[in-house]
Specification:
Order of helices and strands: EHEHHEHEEEEHEHEHEHEEHHH
Distance between the termini: 24 Å
Number of strands: 12
Helix content: 40-55%
Organism: Methanoculleus caldifontis
Largest sheet: 10 strands, mixed
Shape: globular
Family: Belongs to the isocitrate and isopropylmalate dehydrogenases family.
Number of domains: 2
CATH topology of the largest domain: Isopropylmalate Dehydrogenase
Protein name: NAD-dependent isocitrate dehydrogenase
Strand order of the largest sheet: 2-1-3-12-11-4-5-10-8-9
CATH architecture of the largest domain: 3-Layer(aba) Sandwich
Keywords: Oxidoreductase
Strand content: 15-25%
Low-confidence stretches: none
CATH class of the largest domain: Alpha Beta
Mean pLDDT: 95
Radius of gyration: 19 Å
């Protein structure tokens, strides 16, 4: 039995995750779900956003379905996402960008770079260490090559013309691509951002460092209708964590207007991770049919609420199973 830890988190995470959970339970009634509380709301109430006991709960799961958490600009608050990614060694962040005439996968190193967590403040400055290691670069390059090999091509996003650490990253990624037999090119990240938006058909799988991948994938959301459409997976050797790319959006929380598609598609990625590609495809197809029928949330120009959109997808999933 697959055990899934469900973390609603903060803001709209508490609205979109229940929708995704209900759909997951409908297609896989054999899955066992249990709730885990982390996030800013918990930190405000208890002084701890995610403690050791909570991490043990997450480690006990076969997969984690995660909503979104608020990260305040408070020096005493440690990012929950960075903590979980580091503690569970979820080194590969995978963000598919799929829509009309777009089929790109952005693979981002997930545990180091500017999100290394090595930071300190001084009276007149604050410092963050950008870490690019051989081990981290090799394993993310190999993971990206496994995705690129059955497709067409690998692009290495970098800023090696300015950053010495990116020289190492490019060297390792290109060597791994040669070893895997994957055609590979390198692009400077600023030019890549623009070209991806203008000519997405040129790209297949893109691998890059932590912050560059974060920014690039957020910008690429423009191609498919916004952040409310983008799912993601965080993959490690032993653990897997699935979440929408968007944040907690406190300005619209509790209003039943958030787009749950990213959360639903993250659930589909969870299904694929466990080899259930048929159910994953059924969920994706159900989302497509609902959108095609004109049922859309406000960010997509429609009037459907979060719950109403989720209910429509659930009905379509049920018809597909019938």
């Amino acid at each position: 039995m697959v055990k899934v830890a469900v973390v609603e988190g903060d803001g709209i995470g508490q609205e979109v995750v229940p929708v995704a959970r209900e759909i997951l339970a409908a297609v896989r009634p054999d899955f066992e779900f249990f709730d885990v509380e982390v996030g800013y709301g918990r930190w405000e109430r208890t002084g701890s956003a995610c403690d050791d006991e909570t991490m043990n709960d997450l480690r006990s799961a076969d997969a984690i379905l995660f909503g979104a958490v608020t990260t305040p600009p408070d020096p005493d608050y440690r990012s929950v996402l960075l903590q979980i990614r580091h503690d569970l060694d979820l080194y590969a962040n995978v963000r598919p960008i799929r829509g009309d005439n777009v089929d790109v996968v952005i693979v981002r190193e997930n545990t180091e770079g500017l999100y290394s967590g090595i930071e300190w403040t001084e009276p007149d400055r604050a410092c963050t260490v950008r870490v690019v290691s051989r081990r981290g670069s090799e394993r993310i390059a190999r993971y990206a090559c496994t995705l690129a090999k059955p497709r067409r091509h690998l692009t290495v996003g970098n800023k090696a013309n300015v950053l010495k650490s990116d020289c190492l990253f490019v060297e390792i990624c290109t060597a791994e691509a040669v070893r895997a037999g994957v055609p590979c090119t390198t692009r400077y990240i600023d030019a890549l951002c623009l070209d991806l938006l203008m000519r997405p058909d040129r790209y297949d799988v893109i691998v890059t460092t932590n912050m560059f991948g974060d920014i690039l994938s957020d910008a690429a959301a423009y191609l498919v209708g916004g952040l409310g459409m983008l799912p993601s997976a965080n993959i490690g050797e032993r653990h897997a964590f699935f979440e929408p790319v968007h944040g907690s959006a406190p300005d619209i929380a509790g209003q039943n207007v958030a787009n749950p598609i990213a959360a639903i598609r993250s659930a589909a990625m969870l299904l694929s991770h466990f080899g259930d590609t048929a159910s994953a495809a059924a969920v994706e197809e159900a989302v497509g049919r609902v959108i095609g029928a004109g049922i859309r949330t406000r960010d997509l120009g429609g009037a459907a609420g979060t719950r109403e959109f989720g209910a429509a997808v659930l009905r379509e999933v049920g018809r597909g199973k019938a």
